[in-house]
Amino acid sequence: MQDKFVSNQPTSLAPKSAIQFKWRLFSYLERLTSGPAAAPNLPPDSTVKPALWVFASTIGELNAIAPFLRQLVDLHGHLQLVLLTDRRIYRDAFLAQYPLAEVIEIGTSGAPAAQLAAQRPPQLFIVAEIPSLPNDAPCRLPFGYPYQAHQAGAVVALVNGWLYGYPPSCRMDKIERQLLGASYLQIFDVLCVQTDQVAQQLIALGADTQRVHVTGNIKFDALQTSVRRWQDTSSPTILRSLEASDRPIVVAGCVTDDDERELVMDAFEGLRKQQPNALLVLAPRHPENQAVMRALHTNLEARQLSYRCRSNDSDAAIADDLAVLVLDTMGELRDFYARATVAHVGRDHNVLEPLAFGKPVTVRPNWDKTFPSYPVFSMADRDGLLSVQQSSTGLQDEWLSQTQADQRRASKAVNALQQLAGASARSLACLKRLKRLDRLEAIQGGPL
């Protein structure tokens, strides 16, 4: 796939004064509606440090751009890495991957961005995948953050861009999108997106055609085909015991919906009637949701399945009579996929991780076409890399057959996915071509 400019004809951009006026107007309306913004979660070190800002709502977005980001961090070792997220639960998972970073948990207001910019003045601001428009996706990046980065003279870039098409959830969201939507796009110096469709939508909504590039999906560069040693993981004793076991292991990741959880449980109970030593590793999508976890515990107890939760133990070896391990921690699913006999991926989530390890993968049908996971699902399904099952019986039969299957389909999956790599290099090349890189000498003169 070649990086391409969508068009050679630039659009006219709003002057900086017009964007400033709109931002001040919105800030005033926001204060009238919500009151003063909460105090910013600023770094404890008050020393002013030039910074590289990255907004990644969840560990999924951070993992998705990892090949690109690690190269960027290597090129800019003199900058303090500042990871912005709108979710409180990902701090530990972020720091596990980037221990020298500062993780800033942002709120719904952009007002604190000015204080952060004064303390950690950004030279580069990367938005990871979403939102490509204000409040378009299931995350929130207040306009004030890209605006203050732009005001500080930073290069502002969208990487791996995707559009969900979510409608505004409230009146203020609607006002923000109508008032600041085009300004949000015009602040970006470069917008690297996954598909032509996303590119054309952003241009229609006000992006400069010369700043929009179709670079593909960086997730294909993030494939980890080698298994991380158990010694280097967060659950070494558990993973070591799984490696030493000859039990069939089903790893079901990102199981979000109640009906899918029931489907997985029913299929697993059927599997255990034929393979009584089978183990299910179940990773709920939102373990921080107490209502979801209570329902899961009730379900397991009603089925009389012995289980334990990873968050409650001290990394003890898996007992032979344990039926279910609830993986209710962040950032560990990939290591468990690597030890699976067969993997199941919850609908609308990332099938690449288990496929990259050469694992047979089952999924449900009817994925949401607006989700960034859909193009990958569609390609993998088209090429016969997935087993799509609607019923618990079908799922059970597929799991049973895969305990004895050869790895030809899995090897095909790895080869097919590796052919789609290259988006990281194309995205870095887009940054390198920028003329306004006086603060980013490493990109301008350094290797990709």
Strand order of the largest sheet: 1-8-7-6-5-2-3-4
How many helices in DSSP terms?
A: 18
**End-to-end Cα distance:** 17 Å
Number of strands: 15
Low-confidence stretches: 5-12, 441-448
Give a quick rundown of the structure.
This protein has 448 residues and is an alpha/beta fold.
Question: What features would you describe in this structure?
Answer:
With 448 residues, this protein is an alpha/beta fold. It has 18 helices and 15 strands. The protein has an 8-stranded mixed β-sheet, sandwiched between helices. Strands 11-12-10-9-13-14-15 form a 7-stranded parallel β-sheet. Strand 7, helix 8 and strand 8 form a beta-alpha-beta unit. It is globular and about 70 Å long. The C terminus is likely disordered.
What topology does this entry show?
Layout: E1 4-5, H1 16-34, E2 51-55, H2 59-64, H3 66-75, E3 80-85, H4 91-97, E4 102-105, H5 113-119, E5 122-128, H6 144-151, E6 155-161, H7 171-187, E7 190-193, H8 196-204, E8 212-214, H9 236-244, E9 249-255, H10 258-274, E10 279-284, H11 290-302, E11 307-309, E12 324-326, H12 333-337, E13 342-345, H13 352-356, E14 361-363, H14 374-382, E15 387-388, H15 392-402, H16 408-418, H17 423-432, H18 441-445
Parallel strand pairs: 2-3, 2-5, 3-4, 5-6, 6-7, 7-8, 9-10, 9-13, 10-12, 11-12, 13-14, 14-15
Antiparallel strand pairs: 1-8
